[in-house]
Amino acid sequence: MTASTVDTLNPVARGRTEMVLVTKVDDGVTRRTPDQLVVEEPLEIRLDDHLVTTTMRTPGHDFELAAGFCFTDGLLADTPLQGVRYCATGSALETAYNVVTVETGGAAPEPVARLGTTTSSCGLCGSTTLEALAARLAPVAPSTPIGHEVLARVPDAVAKAQGVYASTGAAHAAAAFTADGEAVVVREDIGRHNAVDKVVGRMLLDGRLPATGLGLFVSGRASFEIVQKAWAAGFGTVVAVSAPSALAVATARTAGIVLVGFAREGRFNVYS
Fold first, then answer.
1. Is residue 247 part of a domain?
2. Is 122 labeled as catalytic in the residue annotation?
3. pLDDT in tens, 223-248
């Protein structure tokens, strides 16, 4: 499977925003005006036609999201991808492009379906412990530290590529960036973890994992889940514009990841 095949089949910008009429009140003056909202729809992720989960996401880069989710959750078990496609239960039109199947030809272990729907704000919800991660993943390979001056300017560099957020104010971003601060992959979604999975999925499909020497930026808080996804993908640095959780810090320290929080306006805190 080539990256060009994936790009051809994956409608990158399908329905990510929707225009609605709203009533705006400004200093007592009321007016009707159009406003753009970010779209949120369910995506059913399947592995070799076995249900994995249903997650609420912003449509677009769906193949990357599904591949990245399966990879960062350890479901592929080091088996290579053979393909990613819409649907497995009928035509893509019948399922409104809301079902994606990741294919390994049956080589990957059969997944245990998660009960309920994974929300756009949290995917693991504590189902995986730090001890289990440490048993599955080796510490991140050491690389040259990314300079403080580079870390300080990453949020502004990513902001320039956040088109959905610029239109709606309601989309998170994740980005892979180099030691020079260049954002090489930027993805947006209503959920932080979905945006991260889209970045990881793109790099997986391009054969660019592990992400040794690269950093991962997220536009919200640094939760345990975000750090574990970075660990699985091999990122040595995670930069977040908001706070980390205590478990995220403990996870970063176990993984050997540099964890930066409150990265705003040229300032940040280093937690690990």
1. yes
2. yes
3. 988 999 999 999 999 999 999 988 88
